[in-house]
């Protein structure tokens, strides 16, 4: 059975995180918490390969995201130490976003997931189309 990172640790020894939130059960739990949702992986991908983007550029790279949601997602990624936010004190204000080393390593871990999606995209679309039509793929 795969190790979850909690073997040999009793429930009372796990403790809790900030604000009383329980610690993660396993590494996958932690990773999914950080990249969960539709937009965070897209934001990470836009910032890949050492890119530094301003807010407007980032929004153009993540087509379909609202300004409010992008701000929220960036704040969460910054709070998790995945994204660095650099504010330049000038008029008009300039803010740039880039990946931290933690964010870069997370992006590298997401590459195989993207490859899997590329390899199976046609089948996934066909399955969804069949489900809408009420037929089997």
Structural write-up:
By secondary structure, the chain is mostly helical. The protein has one domain: Winged helix-like DNA-binding domain superfamily/Winged helix DNA-binding domain (Arc Repressor Mutant, subunit A), CATH 1.10.10.10. It contains six helices and three strands. Strand 2 (83-88) and strand 3 form a beta hairpin. The longest helix has 33 residues, at 101-133. The two termini are 33 Å apart. Mean pLDDT is 84; it is low at 1-16.
What descriptors fit this protein?
single chain; 137 residues; mainly alpha; Arc Repressor Mutant, subunit A; 3-stranded antiparallel sheet; 3 strands; 10% strand
- Helix proportion range: 40-55%
Rg of Cα set:
19 Å
CATH topology: Arc Repressor Mutant, subunit A
The backbone outline, from C-alpha atoms, is globular
Assembly status: single chain
**Could you tell me the strand content as a percent range?**
5-15%
Instruction: Write out the strand line-up for the largest beta sheet, numbering strands in chain order.
Output: 1-3-2
The CATH architecture would be Orthogonal Bundle
Largest sheet: 3 strands, antiparallel
Name the CATH superfamily assignment: Winged helix-like DNA-binding domain superfamily/Winged helix DNA-binding domain
Structural class: mainly alpha
Topology at a glance:
Blueprint: H1 11-14, H2 27-35, H3 40-46, E1 53-54, H4 55-61, H5 67-79, E2 83-88, E3 94-99, H6 101-133
Antiparallel strand pairs: 1-3, 2-3
């Amino acid at each position: 059975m795969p190790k979850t990172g909690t073997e040999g640790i009793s429930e009372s020894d796990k403790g809790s995180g900030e604000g009383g939130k329980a610690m993660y059960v396993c590494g996958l739990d932690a990773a999914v918490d950080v990249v969960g949702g539709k937009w965070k992986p897209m934001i990470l991908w836009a910032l890949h390969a050492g890119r530094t983007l301003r807010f407007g550029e980032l929004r153009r790279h993540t087509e379909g995201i609202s300004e409010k949601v992008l701000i929220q997602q960036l704040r969460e990624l910054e709070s998790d130490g995945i994204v660095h936010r650099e504010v330049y004190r000038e008029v008009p204000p300039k803010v740039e976003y880039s990946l931290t080393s933690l964010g870069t390593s997370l992006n590298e871990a997401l590459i195989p997931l993207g490859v899997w999606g590329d390899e199976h995209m046609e089948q996934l679309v066909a399955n969804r189309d069949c489900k809408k039509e009420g037929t089997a793929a």
